[in-house]
Amino acid sequence: MTNRRHFLAAMGAAALAGCAQLGKSARNAHVVVVGGGFGGAAAAKYLRLWSDGRVRVTLVERNAQFISCPMSNLVIGGVQTMGYLTHDYAGLRDHHGVRIIQDTVTAIDPSARELRLASGERLHYDRLLLSPGIDFMPESIEGLAGHEDGIPHAWKAGPQTALLHRQLAAMPDGGVFAIHIPKAPFRCPPGPYERASLVADYCRRHKPRAKVLVLDANADIQSKKGLFLAAWGDRYRGMIEYRPNNQLLGVDARTRTAKLEFDDIKADVLNVIPPQRAGKVVDLIGSRLVNDRWVSVNWLSTEVSDVPNVHVIGDATLSAPRMPKSGTMANQQAKVAAAAIVHLLADLPPNPSPVVMNTCYSYVGGDSAMHVASVHRFDTAEHTFLPVEGAGGLSAVASPAEATAAQAWARNIWADTLN
Amino acid sequence: MAPNIHAGPVAIDAGRTLAATCANCHGTDGHSVGGTESLAGVPRDTLLRKLDAFSRGEKPATIMHQIAKGYTPEQLTLIADHFAAQRTHTGH
Predict the structure, then answer these.
(1) Nearest CA in chain A to B28
(2) Interface contact A373, partner B, CB < 8 A
(3) Beta bridge partner(s), residue A298
(4) In this predicted model, what pLDDT tens digit does every residue of A254-275 receive, in sequence order?
(5) Hey, what CATH topology would domain B14-84 get?
(6) Does A13 touch chain B (CB under 8 A)?
(7) Closest partner residue to A416 among B2, B24, B67, by Cβ?
(8) Neighboring chain A residues of B12 at a CB cutoff of 8 Å
(9) Among residues A100, A104, A225, B9, which is most buried (max CB within 10 A)?
């Protein structure tokens, strides 16, 4: 009930603000989207599609190009190149009429509904949608901050992806490639285990005496456990060592040493995936973050629980139960947000029963992949998305057919997000 | 009045938003860019028969049998109606 009252109050405020500028009332509503990843880019496109072009959309993105995090472990494992992951924003501009600004946001004033860019430009919005992904918290691991060149994370695709591949390629045969996984929740739950598999696949071909050491702060493998263990015990027998409950306390960047509670481990390549939080641009809206990390949203509309007219989607949100932080899920949430925003701008209530689904492929080798899938329905009583019981599931076994399906998924979601 | 989208408020069709959950693999509005079946323009009854067979586990699949079960028969009908109403691309 609180949510409903809050929502009505927000709408009232918006209506009053509109009255105050009656002279401008003939203009089209304007939505600013910040962050051009799987969430923000898809939201920009679907806001234009579903408003039949009647909502003006501006996308603010700091990078010139879209680089896909999904499939980026293939580049680290030497199976694909950066070009495969890299796409441009021209489709959003040319096919859908989205204004694209390459810049960063320096200030947001939710009461004035205005944001300021590093260039100095000010943008007024009727609704703001933030899809900022994650930022890292390297300061929670002693000695890590400022050393991402020596100890790459490669958990945002881009130069870090290419760097980690180069470090792997330069590693001596017989070397140790160590991966540290932070405590959940983190972006892409199966991603670290897929990375271990693809690094082992590369080593099997190029450095057969090398070893992959997985230092997991969690008590167990976080996704597709049986399928990963099957691959590790079969294809990579003796190559991958998995250590649960291995919280990383510190690192020595000079010697590539991982400092654990009972042990120091010197690696030839040290890949630390740091703890994560909502992308820092959310700090500009003054929302109270859950656990100081994630943004709480009303999942019916994706509007931020304590900041009216601002929506947040993707990895930055406090996820609904069993909803993964994935590219697919960000794209799906983008459509919930786009539909809700178009309705709210037209003084219509959001769709009362939205549905999202997740399809997530992981490779266990360059030629073999598997999936996990789920469908999530908005539950009115719980006021959140809940997985549909009896639906979804895992592959029976990793297979080349699913590697082909994974590539089809990538082509289609990239096109659905950007073109 | 708040700034609004003009020509009167028009609710987005429920089938359109439901069908958008398929787009990650089958393309925007069912126009696949490759590797999966294009659903745009497929007759409603053909789609519903396939979806029903997936739900019942009667049609072999790697993933669709798991996904189809997540939607109610009413939702599947709305999805099939939406795809059936889309024009197929010509020229390839």
Answers:
(1) A416
(2) yes
(3) A303
(4) 999 999 998 999 999 999 999 9
(5) Cytochrome Bc1 Complex; Chain D, domain 2 (1.10.760)
(6) no
(7) B24
(8) 50, 339, 342-343, 351
(9) A100
Regarding the domain with residue range A2-62+103-136+276-351, which homologous superfamily does it belong to in the CATH classification?
A: FAD/NAD(P)-binding domain (3.50.50.60)
DSSP-assigned letter for residue A371: E
Are A418 and A87 contacting, i.e. CB atoms less than 8 angstroms apart?
yes
Q: Does A71 touch chain B (CB under 8 A)?
A: no
Q: Domain A141-272 belongs to what topology?
A: FAD/NAD(P)-binding domain (3.50.50)
One-letter identity of residue A47 = L
- List chain B domain ranges: 14-84
Write out pLDDT tens, residues A120-165: 999 999 999 999 999 999 999 999 999 999 999 999 999 999 999 9
CB-facing half-sphere around the CA of B91: CA atoms within 13 A:
2
Contact list in B for residue A29 (CB cut-off 8 A) is: 2-5
Prediction ipTM score: 0.92
- Sign for the CA dihedral angle at A210, A214, A220, A222 comes to negative
Q: Is A18's CB within 8 Å of B3's CB? A: yes
pTM of the model: 0.93
Enumerate the residues of chain B whose CB falls inside 8 A of the CB of residue A377.
70
Radius of gyration of the CA atoms of chain B, in A: 15
Closest-CA residue to A335 (of A68, A96, A42):
A42
